[in-house]
Amino acid sequence: MPSKTPQDSVNGEKDVEMKDAALKGGKGKKVKEGEEEMTVVVPPSKKAAAAAKQNGAGSGDVDVDMDGPVEDGAVKAEEEVDPVVKTVADIKSNFPLLERAVTLFDARFTLRALRSISSIRKRLTPDILAQVITETYPSTSPAAKSLLVAIDRENAAFTKASASSTEMEIDSDAKSNKAAKKEVKEVIPEIDIFLGILIQISYLDNKINQKGAVFSQHLVERIHSLNRRTLDSLSARVYFYYSLFCEQMAPLPPSPASPVVSIRPALLSALRTATLRKDVDTQSTIIVLLLRNYLSTSHISQANLLLNHTKLPATASNNQVARWLYYVGRISAIQLNYSDAHANFTAATRKAPSSPSAAGFSQSATKFLLVVKLLMGDIPERATFRDPSMERALQPYLQLVQAVRVGLLDEFENTIKQYSETFRRDGTYTLILRLRQNVIRTGIRMMSLSYSRISLRDICIRLKLDSEESAEYIVAKAIKDGVIEASLDREKGFMKSKEVGDVYATREPGEAFHDRINACLALHDESVKAMRFPMNQHRLELKNAQEAREREREMAKEIQDGDLDEDDLGGEFEGM
């Protein structure tokens, strides 16, 4: 069996010629004369391929395969996509979702479009928005012109043919005009509002607050004029950014002349309208915005009045529930309802999203929770301060907890002086000032555990109080509140501590276990409420069950009449 040499083959492969006489396997038939010989190409071994690859650069006998590099270059060219084109495509990919939301009347598609904004936000520019608008709308659209004016691109050239130009190109026949009108697809208002939200975000990221507030006001008026239920999720987002613009405009919120005060009538009117229309998304969003608005200007009584007259919808989103619990907890803490504030802050930290973008909310809620725990006389766990996402932000509060835990008044006051700006910025400064009495109570409790009997003069010296009378008053108040278990002898001037009993003999472990059970049951109830089921599935099951019972009755009746027997049924039949 002759074979070619490696020099005669391509890349060192061996071409083996199989002649007629060599084909002995199988049927053993000979090939007729004149037919071509069959050549079998045997792939080279790994060693031969490696040697050919090394010698291929210098040898002229080896043919170079040009297809491989060209394909690799094409793949690389396809991978390197223009970011502007990709951003425009990402924005346009949300338009079919909005159309499906309108067609199917399902808000989940709208929420999917809104969730994509976080990935598009960093790449937004006025030029990209102008390109999307000109490629989506016809040149005669007033909505497109208003959006282009908002981003200062009113002279942008439209690439989509208008309805009038399309109709002029077609014959003046009546049928052809109707067909042309059908070809021109109308842009739904949901796409207008979605692009308006992108423009709001562009203003917010570039800190153009004045123009953003004016544009948001026009967008709100447009939503009111449309009155479409498919705009509920979008309108909630519009009001959210509208409130943010007003918060960042001068003068800033603590001032009574701040723009946040001027938008309260508009928010209250929108809340009334959303409640009448049963718009859950807008209603829950505006309630949270109003609470934030009142707290920013320290109008606690008005915020409490709003809580007494409104209620957050039961089907509100998890993010809005977390925000609502946070603001209600702040109001309760200011009004000295520490137990309610503790429950609200705990629920807010549990409902807070776990994404890194929501780390600021979790940190703020945790700070208020730590201060409320100290006001209630509890000491937070050390594991709270070891969380990597919380460790740096909670450093001032760690020193505050250490000062309160030991009961040293000097360290407590030094910590307040050192981190006063941080506490003011966090909004916890006024609550921390109330901890002075708790520091004194903690010091008294530590002394009651350390000494079986201690004089009031020593208490006054250790806590650096003004007089023994104030020390006597504080000790008596601590005994009455149950902070310590001791007795006070006024004649001899000392405090006598009682023996410490077993904590498991008290009701404290049972109460802690009861709180955990309540939290688990509440989580179970919320999970059941959040479950989704197919529409009218129970009716279909009832209908199938009813039809099965009717068939069984008919078969039983035919058996009784003698029309059927067990052989016709194909087996044994169990009667009714």
Automatic annotation (TrEMBL):
Which molecular-function annotations from GO does this UniProt entry contain?
enzyme regulator activity
Cellular component, GO annotation: proteasome regulatory particle, lid subcomplex
Residue ranges of domain PCI in the record: 322-502
**Organism of origin:** Lachnellula suecica
The Basic and acidic residues compositionally biased stretches are 11-22, 546-560
Name listed for the protein in its UniProt record: Putative 26S proteasome regulatory subunit rpn3
Keywords attached to this Swiss-Prot or TrEMBL record, sorted alphabetically, are: Proteasome
Q: Where is the composition biased (Acidic residues)?
A: 561-576
Origin organism lineage:
Eukaryota, Fungi, Dikarya, Ascomycota, Pezizomycotina
